[in-house]
Design goal:
The protein has helices at 2-42, 45-53, 245-257, 343-356, 362-368, 371-384, 451-463, 470-486, 489-497, 503-525; strands at residues 58-59, 65-68, 71-72, 74-76, 81-85, 94-102, 108-111, 114-116, 119-125, 131-137, 141-150, 154-159, 170-177, 189-199, 210-215, 231-235, 270-277, 280-289, 304-308, 330-334, 395-399, 409-412. The protein is an alpha+beta fold. Strands 1, 4, 5, 7, 8, 10 and 11 form a seven-stranded mixed beta sheet that branches. α8 (470-486) packs antiparallel against α10 (503-525). The radius of gyration is 32 Å and the shape is elongated.
């Protein structure tokens, strides 16, 4: 009997324990569900679910990626717009578009009156201001966005904005989409790893920064029809409100030299791109080749490259004195690890010594420089009034090797302060100095003979009737301006940075060039 009573007591205790366990478990489940509900509430999920059951879906971007013809589109978060660079050869011709939308949600999409799920084929007439509206819905969410078509290439960078600076490179994802990839013998979209840093001196003070980019691997093609290279520059062209001058001057340098038989000059290739930084539009840029040993085809062992970085004079009787305290206007860019008092430094300055010590005869010029390159550079500086390129400033000097008969090649650089632009981009300053002829640019009438004077007069006679003519320059300015405005690239950059110089600035630039041309034409023709 006692044993039975004990068993009953144990059963009762066990039942009570189980009940307590169940109660605790239920309480824990209630607390857990309460916490989950709190999290959902704080994140808006409960409201989202409630709205969905009420037939009102919450707005949220549920698109992970949009691609057209297997090209991933660049997304601008601020304007909720996806941009697709495309070749627009015929605005009246239908083009096939395979649009794919990636999302973790089960979505329904709609373009105009066409409904689809994640993929659709369209045949559309594409023009420069074409915009497609897209509506996307899931069970809980809805989202509307736009696809904008452009013919301007797009560069996208994704990096840690807290780490970027002007000294050290940091990691960045790099993407370039080229609508003219077939013509340029490249690929529609390049994606890869890179290292990036800010570049420039005075322009570092602007919100719109320039970049120097190093790709992590060699590529077999050049971007946008340019030469193949690992290192590139994204020039913000921020000092010029028109966004035209650097490109105009760089292209003009190539045009001036195109007719030369020996091709002893370096092209300054650059192409316009629109840049997006971490998903946000950052403006209109120039993607530029770097002037380096590869572009100039310098010998790996004996080639030399100097860059002029100041307006300072150099003592050509003291440049090889390691104890000298003068401020040199040059930086030794190649060889990479050589000092400014190395053999490379002496080799190139030895070649330049006689000319810069005052012997400016034709024979000395011809012995020191490639004469066509030298003369074209002087005319180029005169007609563009490149005020930031006088003396040695922003000029590259190079020799291919250390052979005795190797001459010095001149390559200009940093050409934003041209075509009348001074230290500010205010329109009132454009034509103030078109009359000034800088004597330091051209050594006319200095030499003991007239051979150089006659050479530059003949060269000007040819160029002034061809690439430097008023008609050609006006057409070039208009063509470049139309290219950027049709794609609304100038308008987007103006809207972001409040540029003051638009159509009025373009007309002022053409007026400045016309007056400048007359001044230089009269100046050179007056040489006796």
């Amino acid at each position: 009997m006692a044993r039975k009573i004990n068993c009953q007591k144990r059963d009762m205790i066990s039942i009570k324990r189980n009940r307590i366990k169940n109660i605790v478990l239920i309480l824990l489940i209630i607390i857990f569900l309460g916490l989950v509900a709190l999290v959902f509430y704080n994140n808006g999920y409960m409201e989202t679910a409630y709205n969905a059951f009420q037939g009102e879906k919450t707005e949220k971007n549920i698109i992970d990626e949009i691609s057209i013809n297997n090209v991933v589109l660049t997304y601008d978060e601020e304007n909720n717009t996806y941009y697709f660079p495309i070749t627009i050869n015929d605005e009246n011709k239908n083009q096939q578009l395979e649009i794919k939308i990636k999302s973790l949600e089960n979505i329904k999409c709609k373009i105009e009156d066409k409904e689809f799920s994640k993929r659709i084929d369209l045949y559309e007439k594409i023009n420069y201001d074409k915009t497609i509206e897209i509506n996307v819905e899931s069970f809980f969410y809805k989202w509307n966005c736009k696809i904008k078509f452009t013919n301007i290439p797009i560069v996208s960078l994704n990096y840690d904005e807290n780490q970027i600076g002007a000294e050290e490179y940091i990691y960045s994802e790099f993407s370039l989409t080229d609508p003219n990839y077939k013509k340029n013998n490249s690929q529609y979209q390049y994606n890869g790893d890179s290292k990036v840093r800010y570049r420039g001196n005075s322009t570092l003070g602007y919100g719109k920064k320039s970049y120097r980019i190093k790709l992590d691997k060699n590529i077999e093609f050049g971007f946008l029809g340019m030469n193949s290279a690992k290192t590139w520059i994204l020039d913000s062209i921020v000092t010029d409100g028109s966004n035209l001058r650097t490109k105009l001057a760089s292209d003009l340098w190539g045009e001036i030299n195109k007719d030369l038989d020996n091709k002893k000059y370096a092209e300054l290739n650059s192409e316009y791109v629109e840049v997006y930084i971490n998903g946000k539009y950052n403006g209109l840029y120039l993607l530029k080749e770097v002037v380096d040993e590869n572009l100039l085809n310098l010998d790996k062992n004996t080639g030399v490259l100097l860059k002029g970085v100041t307006w300072d004079r150099i003592d050509f009787n003291d440049y090889n004195n390691v104890n000298s305290d003068y401020r040199t206007p040059f930086e030794l860019k190649y060889p990479k690890n050589a000092s400014k008092y190395s053999k490379s430094w002496v080799d190139i300055l030895d070649k330049m010594k006689e000319y810069y010590n005052g012997n400016m005869s034709y024979d000395t010029i011809d012995k020191t420089f490639y004469i066509e390159n030298f003369v074209n550079h002087k005319i180029f500086l005169l007609i563009t009034q490149a005020i930031d390129n006088y003396e040695f400033k922003n000029i590259y000097y190079s020799i291919e090797n250390d052979k005795k008969d190797t001459k010095v090649l001149i390559t200009p650089w940093d050409l934003d302060l041209t075509f009348g632009l001074l230290w500010s981009n205010e329109a009132s300053q454009y034509i103030e100095r078109y009359e000034k002829v800088e004597d330091i640019v051209v050594p006319i009438g200095i030499g003991p003979d007239k051979q150089f004077d006659n050479y530059i007069k003949e060269r000007w006679k040819f160029l002034s009737k061809s690439v430097l003519s008023k008609e050609n320059m006006n057409n070039t300015i208009d063509k470049q301006y139309d290219y950027l405005t049709k794609a609304q690239a100038l308008q987007r950059d103006d809207a972001k940075y409040n540029n003051s110089e638009k159509t009025a600035g373009i007309e002022a630039m053409k007026d400045w060039y016309s007056k400048r041309f007359d001044i230089i034409d009269g100046y050179i023709k007056s040489i006796q």
